[in-house]
Design a protein that fits this description.
5-stranded mixed beta sheet; 6 helices; alpha/beta; two-stranded antiparallel ribbon; 9 strands; Glutaredoxin
C-alpha cells in the first residue's frame, strides 16, 4: 500500500468497530524502546531541522473550543492528519503513535508531560467535533482531536504540507479521502524535528521520541 495516498476500494466505514478493536491493544502493548538522554542527538542534526513544515492554525476541539497552534508553545507536538472514517491506515497509524507515546511515558513520565499528541481531521464534512473527539478518546485521553471548517482545515493542511482530496462518492453517499499519512514531531518552538516511523511499529516510535525529547 502506498501510505502517502490512500487508494482503497470505495467504501465508507465508521470508525468505532475498527478503532475500538485496535484500541484494546493499547492497554496490552509493552513498548520499551528508547534510551536515556545521554545518547540524544543534537536537534540541529534532526532530519527536519530547518524545514518549512507547520504553522498557525485555528481549529476546534471536541468541546467546540477554538484551538490555535500557538496554544502549545513550549510543548513538543505530535501531529497526524487523517479522518475518522478511514478503514485502515489512519487507525493503525494512530494506534502505533499512541502506543509509542505510552512506551515513552512509561520510561520518561516527566518528559512525556511536555508532549501533546494531536489528530487533525481532513474530512470536516463528516468529522464533527464530537466525532473527532470520540475517535481520539478511543486511543488515549492524551490524544487531542481537532477539526474545523473546510477553509480552516485546508489552511492547516497547507501549513503542514499535507495533501488530501475527496474520492468518488458511492450510491450510498460514502467516500474515502486520499491523503498524506505522516506523523510529525515538533519541538517546543513549533519547529519540525522528525517524522515518526509508524510503519516500523510502536517500539520504533518510542525510540524516536526518546531520541529528541529532552
Amino acid at each position: 500500500m502506498n501510505r502517502n495516498a490512500m487508494l482503497n476500494p470505495l467504501k465508507s466505514t465508521p470508525f468505532p468497530a475498527f478503532v475500538l478493536a485496535l484500541s484494546i491493544s493499547l492497554g496490552l502493548a509493552a513498548c520499551s524502546a528508547g534510551s536515556g538522554s545521554s545518547n540524544q542527538t543534537p536537534v540541529s542534526q534532526a532530519p527536519l531541522y530547518g524545514a518549512t513544515i507547520g504553522g498557525p492554525f485555528t481549529l476546534t476541539d471536541k468541546n467546540d473550543k477554538t484551538v490555535h497552534w500557538s496554544d502549545f508553545a513550549g510543548k513538543y507536538r505530535i501531529v497526524y492528519f487523517g479522518y475518522t472514517y478511514c478503514p485502515d491506515v489512519c487507525p493503525t497509524d494512530v494506534q502505533r503513535i499512541m502506543q509509542g507515546y505510552r512506551g515513552f511515558a512509561d520510561e520518561h513520565p516527566m518528559l512525556a508531560e511536555k508532549v501533546q499528541p494531536m489528530f487533525i481531521s481532513i474530512d470536516p464534512e463528516r468529522d464533527t467535533p464530537k466525532v473527532v473527539g470520540e475517535f481520539a478518546s478511543a486511543f488515549s485521553d492524551k490524544l487531542l482531536g481537532l477539526t474545523g471548517t473546510p477553509d480552516q482545515v485546508k489552511q492547516a493542511a497547507d501549513e503542514f504540507r499535507v495533501f488530501y482530496s475527496k474520492g468518488p462518492v458511492s450510491d450510498g453517499g460514502g467516500y474515502l479521502m486520499q491523503h498524506s499519512s505522516i506523523a510529525y514531531l515538533f519541538g517546543p518552538d513549533g519547529k519540525p524535528i522528525a517524522t515518526l516511523p509508524t510503519d516500523k511499529g510502536a517500539d520504533a516510535v518510542t525510540a524516536e521520541l526518546a531520541k529528541w525529547i529532552r
